[in-house]
Amino acid sequence: MLLCGGRRFNILAPTPLSFGTFIKRLASTKSSKLSLSTKSFTASASTKFFSSSGFEALNSRQKEQVHRYIDSLLEWNQRMNLTAVKEESEVMERHVEDSLSIIEPIRTSYLSHCGPSSENLNLVDVGSGAGLPGVILAIASPGWKVTLLESMNKRCSFLEHVVSEIGLSNVQVKRERAEKLGQDVNFRESFDVAVARAVAEMRILAEYCLPLVRTGGIFVAAKGHDPQEEVQRAERAIQLMGASLLQIRCVDSHSKHGQRTAIICLKGKPTSKKYPRDPGTPAKDPL
After folding, report:
1. Which of 42, 64, 107, 254 is the most exposed place for a label (fewest CB within 10 A)?
2. What is the pLDDT of residue 39?
3. Helix, coil or strand: residue 266
4. What is the CA radius of gyration of the chain?
5. Could you give phi then psi for residue 52, rounded to 5 degrees?
6. Which UniProt keywords apply (predicted)?
């Protein structure tokens, strides 16, 4: 049990929940919405999360790599629109810590449901943009093989530059749309983990990400403090992709923008070959 917003909420389900059961449990609270206030964490509950600064947990080389990433991001941001954030401290708080905060949920969910080790994961960051969270995950977890999937040329140029600049040998940049990569036999259902942050709503993300995940792998979406309605709308899409909701996990992002959550789906069977649909269709006509 975790105390969030004054309510006790079971976020660590031993088996994937049906959406009906999950929504009924949420509805049993006094409010139909999740209230996930950072201030409501008890000392005992916070130990289940990335309770101290994720950045401070890195070694000196990793910290230097993060600083070099931020320097490159802010420099390139003067020439192209990579982020609305303009100050190093804000990048650290809003983007870096937020990215680091999903590592522990990825590891524990994978170990509980997918495999005996989380040290050598094959992970894809869908809609990587400026490399968030993928670049930060690759820095913090050098044993992971990380693919940064991005469709825009300019952003891919930045990603290739920053990967070379900070010396990340465990990263590849792939310029492609998620819908096309999901139908590519070389990538389809080949990843242990797919992650997405600030890309689209859950029912669209499900079709982007889950066809890339192997059966028995997980999809993790970084979301805000109140994802209940979005998750409920995504029920059909997640199930059509062969997956089920595993848990909604509070994460400590150390951000003034409020509590963040990780929505974690477990893929139980192969995705039908008709998914993902043609490029643009998932966004225009969500399942």
Report:
1. 42
2. 28
3. strand
4. 18
5. -105, 170
6. Cytoplasm, Methyltransferase, rRNA processing, S-adenosyl-L-methionine, Transferase
